[in-house]
Design brief:
Length: 389
C-alpha cells in the first residue's frame, strides 16, 4: 500500500461548502492523471497529448486572493467566498491554494473593522461600506497590492487605517480604494482612488518585469506561468526573423517575452487599462520591437488581411469561452504560418481546433500545463501550422 505523503493529507475544512476546489482530498498525482485523461479524451483526436507538466508543490500558489465581507447570523464580521451558485458567504480562515501572506492581510483587515467602525456591505439593503478585499502579490518582487472595494469613496480615517495595516504588514506596497456603488455581482467598480503607494505592483516573468494594476489580467499561478510561456515561445520556434501577433495580449506578457526572439511583435487588446500597462511594460523593459493597439483582435486581423499584411506567428490566449467564429475566420484570412493557442478550457479548445483544421491548419503539438491545482481546470498550449496548398 502506497504511503501517503504529508502534502496529500492536507484537507480543507471548507471544501464542501466552498466548491472552488473540485479535487480537494484527492492525492495530487491522481489529480494530474485525471486531467491527463480529460485532455486525451477531448483533444486526442487532434494528435498525441504530451504528459501534463505538474507542480512540485501544489499549495498556496494563487497570487491573487479575493475575499467577500459579510456578517453571520450572530452579527460577527466574516470574510470568505461565495458558496457555489449562490451569494451566501462561506467563512474561510485558511485556503490551501491561496497565497498565505495575502490571507494573513485579509484576516488583519477583518480584525481592524470594528475598531475603525467600518460596516460591511449588505447586498440586500445596500447599506454598509466594505464589500470585498482583493490582495495581489508579486511572487518574485514580493510587492503587495491591497484593494479595498467599497460602496462609497468616503472611507473614515483612511490614512490611519493604512498606517495601522502597514504596522502589521510593512511589506504592503500600495493600497487602493475601488468604488463599486452599483447593485452588481461584479467585484470591481470603475473608479479608483490610490490611498497609499503607486497604485500598482510589479512582478517578473521569464526575465521581463510587468506592471500589474487592480484590473489587469495576470495569470494567477506565477510558477507555472513561466512553464506555460516558455512552452508557448518554444512551440513558436522563433528565429528573430518573424513578425508576430499577440491577440488578447492583456498587459503584454507573452508578446514581451516573445519579442526577444522575434523581429517584430504586434499586441492587440480590448481593455484600455491593460494596453496602457502593456505600453509602460515595453518601455520599462527597454523592448522597442513591439507595438500595442487597443481594439478587437478579430477586427484588427481582418484589417491587416484586407491590407495584405503578413504575420508569421499568432499567439492567442482567449477567455474560457474560447474564440468566436468571427475571430477564427479573421485568423484564417490573415493566414499566419503558425498559431500558438493557449487555452484554459479544453472543451472550447477542441471546438476551435476543429474549425481551424477545416480551414487549412493542422495540429502539431498539444502540451497541457497544470495551472489550477485541486480544481478541474487545466491549461493547454497547442501549436498549429498552416497546411501547404
Amino acid at each position: 500500500m502506497e504511503k501517503k505523503t504529508e502534502k496529500e493529507e492536507k484537507i480543507c475544512g471548507s471544501a464542501k461548502k466552498c466548491g472552488g476546489c473540485q479535487y480537494q482530498g484527492m492525492p495530487y498525482k491522481a489529480q494530474l492523471k485525471k486531467k491527463q485523461k480529460q485532455e486525451e479524451k477531448l483533444l486526442g483526436k487532434f494528435g498525441k497529448v504530451k504528459p501534463i507538466k505538474g507542480m512540485d508543490n501544489p499549495y498556496y500558489y494563487r497570487n491573487k486572493v479575493h475575499a467577500v465581507f459579510d456578517r453571520d447570523r450572530k452579527g460577527n464580521i466574516i470574510s470568505g467566498i461565495y458558496e457555489a451558485k449562490s451569494h451566501r458567504v462561506v467563512p474561510i480562515e485558511e485556503c490551501l491554494i491561496e497565497d498565505q501572506k495575502s490571507q494573513e492581510i485579509i484576516r488583519t483587515i477583518r480584525g481592524m473593522l470594528k475598531s475603525f467602525k467600518i460596516k460591511t456591505y449588505d447586498e440586500d439593503t445596500g447599506y454598509g461600506l466594505l464589500r470585498h478585499v482583493l490582495v495581489r502579490r508579486g511572487f518574485s518582487t514580493n510587492e503587495i497590492m491591497v484593494v479595498l472595494v467599497v460602496s462609497s469613496p468616503i472611507f473614515p480615517s483612511k490614512n490611519n487605517f493604512v498606517k495601522a495595516l502597514r504596522k502589521v504588514h510593512p511589506e504592503i506596497s500600495t493600497v487602493i480604494l475601488n468604488i463599486n456603488d452599483k447593485k452588481t455581482s461584479m467585484v470591481l467598480g470603475e473608479r479608483e482612488i490610490v490611498i497609499y503607494g503607486k497604485g500598482f505592483i510589479r512582478d517578473r516573468l521569464c526575465g521581463c518585469s510587468f506592471r500589474i494594476s487592480p484590473k489587469s489580467f495576470y495569470q494567477v499561478n506565477p510558477i507555472q506561468t513561466e512553464v506555460l510561456y516558455k512552452e508557448a515561445v518554444r512551440l513558436a520556434g522563433l528565429t528573430k526573423k518573424e513578425r508576430v501577433m499577440d491577440a488578447y495580449c492583456g498587459i503584454g506578457t507573452i508578446g514581451l517575452i516573445a519579442a526577444k526572439h522575434a523581429k517584430e511583435v504586434i499586441g492587440v487588446e480590448l481593455n484600455k487599462d491593460a494596453v496602457r500597462d502593456a505600453k509602460i511594460n515595453a518601455r520599462e523593459n527597454k523592448i522597442t520591437n513591439i507595438s500595442f493597439y487597443q481594439g478587437d483582435a478579430g477586427r484588427f486581423m481582418e484589417g491587416m488581411a484586407a491590407e495584405k499584411e503578413h504575420v508569421d506567428v499568432v499567439f492567442m490566449d482567449p477567455p474560457r469561452a474560447g474564440s468566436d467564429e468571427k475571430f477564427l475566420s479573421s485568423l484564417v484570412a490573415l493566414a499566419p504560418e503558425k498559431v500558438v493557442y493557449i487555452s484554459c478550457n479544453p472543451e472550447t479548445l477542441a471546438r476551435d481546433l476543429k474549425y481551424l483544421e477545416k480551414n487549412k491548419y493542422e495540429v502539431k503539438e498539444i502540451q497541457p500545463v497544470e495551472m489550477f491545482c485541486f480544481t478541474e481546470h487545466v491549461e493547454t498550449v497547442c501549436l498549429l501550422s498552416r497546411k501547404e496548398k
